[in-house]
Amino acid sequence: MKANGMRKRDAYWGLVQQRKTCNSCAVHGYKNQAELGYDTGEVGNYSTWANDLDADVLIVAQDFSNQAIYMRDKGLIEPKRLSEDAGPGDYSTETNFFLRELTKVIGRDMGLPTHAGGKGVFLTNAVLCLKPGAMNAANPAKVIANCGARFLRPLVELIQPKVIVTLGAVPARSVLMAYATDVPELAPLRKAAFGIVCRQGPYHLPNGTRLYPMYHPGRLGQSQRQRAEPTGANGWELMKADWRRMNKLLK
Prior knowledge:
5-stranded mixed β-sheet, about 40% helix, globular
């Protein structure tokens, strides 16, 4: 590994260690992976799927899990065995099937979530610790802000991707919150309707990175994308077209 690569790896490991000892959101009932077990050597469990520190695409999802499902699945992204011909119904979480298909659209197939892969891609969450309550429980704004400032922005500055792709409203808001001070024109978007945030993107961030807010790739996100289109075109096809917009920049 070249010297620059070693420095980047060392800096990343430092960020991982900070995450392992962070308890900033314990007051909200959140628990660190290091506390629950099944921890990894990554900034978060989702990054075990795609963790290229030289990636030109950084994908930010909302949160990894709640505490109960995390323990049930032993911290795994996908507890089921999957083959290359697996369809959405074969996954324990269909979203991961659709997310992989979208990375194929930009020429960066992440592979199966049961194996580390994803050259050219780094995958993370806007909220890294595990929330209490139901899987669909909302994350408090303070939790999103804490993780954005402590981990997401430092990760962006470490990797320096060409594009950040956010999956849904919470990750988009997390990035906007993290950069609103440096890029004042982003500040009003933090409270804007998500459809407006998507339509007005991409956004220019420091160091030349562009933020592409995208609809969540799950079934609900596909339906929302379809409703946002006046033509009523198929939501999944619209979503793939949204991702293709990045290809000119990524080539």
